[in-house]
């Protein structure tokens, strides 16, 4: 894993999230008459989409800045912006469910 590029490291995060994005708990909605399966679906969809947004932000900014990627100056502003979007999307999705 040390020799992996930035895209390969991100794919190791995005591929499991893609499986969760596909709503693996859909049959649970037929077995349980509750808001819980819908909440899980909203949570997983917003998690994948925000992780994908974070990936593209980091890749394109990494192309522009050809140097050291320090956590505080490179990743923290992106995590803050995407975290706010994730919080808003989870809140609205659960509220709608």
TrEMBL record:
Keywords: Membrane, Transmembrane, Transmembrane helix
Gene Ontology cellular component list: membrane
Membrane topology: Multi-pass membrane protein
UniProt xrefs under InterPro entries: TMEM181 (IPR040416), WLS-like_TM (IPR047843)
GO molecular function, a single term: toxic substance binding
Domain Wntless-like transmembrane: 1-96
One of the Pfam families matching this protein, by short name: WLS-like_TM
Location of this chain's protein in the cell: Membrane
Domain of life: Eukaryota
Membrane spanning residue stretches: 12-31, 43-63, 75-95
Protein name as annotated: Wntless-like transmembrane domain-containing protein
Species, as recorded: Jaculus jaculus (Lesser Egyptian jerboa)
């Amino acid at each position: 894993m040390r020799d992996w590029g930035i895209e390969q490291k991100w794919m190791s995060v995005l591929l499991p999230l893609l499986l969760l994005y596909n709503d693996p708990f859909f049959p649970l909605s037929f077995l349980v008459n509750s808001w819980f399966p819908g909440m899980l679906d909203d949570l997983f969809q917003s998690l994948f989409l925000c992780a994908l947004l974070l990936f593209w932000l980091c890749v394109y900014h990494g192309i522009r800045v050809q140097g050291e990627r320090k956590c505080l100056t490179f990743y923290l502003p992106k995590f803050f912006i995407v975290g706010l979007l994730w919080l808003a999307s989870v809140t609205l999705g659960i509220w709608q469910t």
